[in-house]
Amino acid sequence: MKQLTVMTIEGQKSLINVDDDTTNRSLLQTVAHAINSPADALRIAYAGREIDCSNNSAFRPNDAVNVLHVVKRMQGGSPAAELARQMRRQMSHPIPGISVGPSEDDVLTWYVKLSGPAGTPYSGGWFDVELKFPSDFPRSMPTGRFLTPIWHPNVGSEGSICIGQERDDGGACAVECVLAALLMLLATPNASSALNKGCAKQYEYERDAYREKAAAMTRQHAMG
């Protein structure tokens, strides 16, 4: 039996117990019950990786990791191809911890502000990200880069990031999931797909030093 802390992007915390019989799917149900949220509205990350909760594979906790990070998906229909309408919707019904704004001269470019998740070295900071959507959106993914300097394994030296294949049930690129994935990136770095090799090595083998440097850069560049 192992006790884990469930932490949402909004900072909500709950405790759950897992054992040898816990599967990815049953873990999702346990987390959903703990935070009083529909299971199909959740994405869960643990030890730097998102858990595939669609199967019954055994969940194997890491002795050194005691926190599950959770992002709540936005509920609703598929994302629209018309980004101006999506922008208005995001501005009127924002995801907690995210604000968006349009480019003055390009509807395909969004400027996003991310609030550093609680419990991470980015907490208390606001990070500017530029998203560029392709002309065939929503069939193709946007590209993105951090405009605010940040010490993070998955952010390159010029701010480049790799956005995963976030899709809705119809196979289209989901705006809400792309935005939630940006917060998930801050909450759960993944050293195995690093764009900053030095930071990834520090994250893997010198976690305290990584947290200290990441927090220092947050204070320097993302606060005030």
TrEMBL record:
One Pfam family matching this protein: UQ_con
Residues in Ubiquitin-like domain copies: 2-77
Identify this protein by name.
Answer: UBC core domain-containing protein
Q: What is the lineage of its organism?
A: Eukaryota, Viridiplantae, Chlorophyta, core chlorophytes, Chlorophyceae
Domain annotation UBC core: ranges: 78-223
What is the protein's species of origin?
Tetradesmus obliquus (Green alga)
